[in-house]
Amino acid sequence: MAQLAESPSLPRDEEGPVFREPWEAQAFGLTVALHKKGLFSWEEWTAQLSMEIARAQRQGDADLGDSYYRHWLAALEALSNRKGLSNSDELASRTRQWREAYLNTPHGRAVELSAGLDGRRGSSED
């Protein structure tokens, strides 16, 4: 996407965007996929992301680059809510499911959402 080249604060190296955690890449990919489906324009996206970054800075974010994808995720959630792609209740429910999945996953294993759905804690299947 040519628009990505116009995102000066996007963490990147000479090959393109870089991510510190898998969720950052997933949020990035989801945003690009939703845009490519025509669910929002890139201008809408950059405006929402800019608003989230400005809000965080007003609240004391030191803007050291380590919080960029938290702002990205907040922008994606806000835009998804505004466009009717999701809603606050659904986002809160999914956040609880991921938190439960994280707590139910043995150390060193990949976290999967299904571990948050049935309350298992490290069953013998793991």
Explain what this protein looks like in three dimensions.
The protein is built from 4 helices and 2 strands; from the N terminus they run ββαααα. It has 2 domains: 16-86, no CATH class; 87-126, no CATH class. 51% of the residues lie in helices and 3% in strands. With 126 residues, the protein is mostly helical. The protein has helices spanning 22-36, 42-58, 68-82, 88-104, and strands spanning 12-13, 16-17. The chain starts with 11 loop residues before the first strand and ends in a 22-residue tail after the last helix. It has a two-stranded antiparallel ribbon. A hairpin with a 2-residue loop joins strand 1 and strand 2 (16-17).
| First and last CA, distance | 40 Å
- Using only C-alpha atoms, the radius of gyration works out to 17 Å
| Main beta-sheet strand count, sense and barrel state | 2 strands, antiparallel
Give, in spatial order, the strands making up the sheet with the most strands: 1-2
Mean pLDDT: 84
Number of strands: 2
Please report the number of helical segments. 4
Please tell me what the overall shape is.
globular
Portion of residues within helices: 40-55%
The overall number of domains is 2
What layout of secondary structure does this protein have?
Blueprint: E1 12-13, E2 16-17, H1 22-36, H2 42-58, H3 68-82, H4 88-104
Antiparallel strand pairs: 1-2
Search tags:
126 residues; 2 domains; 4 helices; disordered C terminus
